[in-house]
Amino acid sequence: MIRKILEALADENLQLVKRPIDHDSETSQEMIKLGKLRTVFEEALSDEDKETFQNLKNTSDSVNLNYATERFIAGFRLGVLMMTEVFAGSDDLIRH
Asked: How far apart are CA 6 and CA 92, in angstroms?
């Protein structure tokens, strides 16, 4: 199985399937709330302020994405290190 995953990754055939968010979930409810708040907020802004707000949002989104990517990579590396330790110590589980 691991060989197939590594081959798919090497061949750029490994794709993560986007999962829909359950409409009853807390995340979904927060997204709806965020959309409504943003609409109310933008209605109160001038055109120049809307542009500034959009720049702020884009920059914030970029920072959040970069941070999430860094955290994912760090977590993945930690998981690999843990698996390496498991495999390295697996001889202790085998009777000789």
From this structure: 28
* Residue 42 near residue 53 (C-beta atoms within 8 A): yes
Kindly report the pTM of this predicted structure. Answer: 0.63
Amino acid residing at 6: L
Which parts of the chain fold into alpha helices (H)?
2-10, 26-43, 47-88
Q: Per residue in 7-24, pLDDT tens?
A: 777 777 777 777 788 889
Structure-token match 């907020």, residue found: 41
The contacts of residue 22 (CB under 8 Å, 6+ apart) are: 28
Closest CA to 38 of 26, 29, 50: 50
Please tell me the distance from the alpha carbon of residue 68 to that of residue 59, in angstroms, as a whole number.
14
- Please say whether the beta carbons of 46 and 56 come within 8 A: no
Q: Which tokens belong to 41?
A: 């907020």
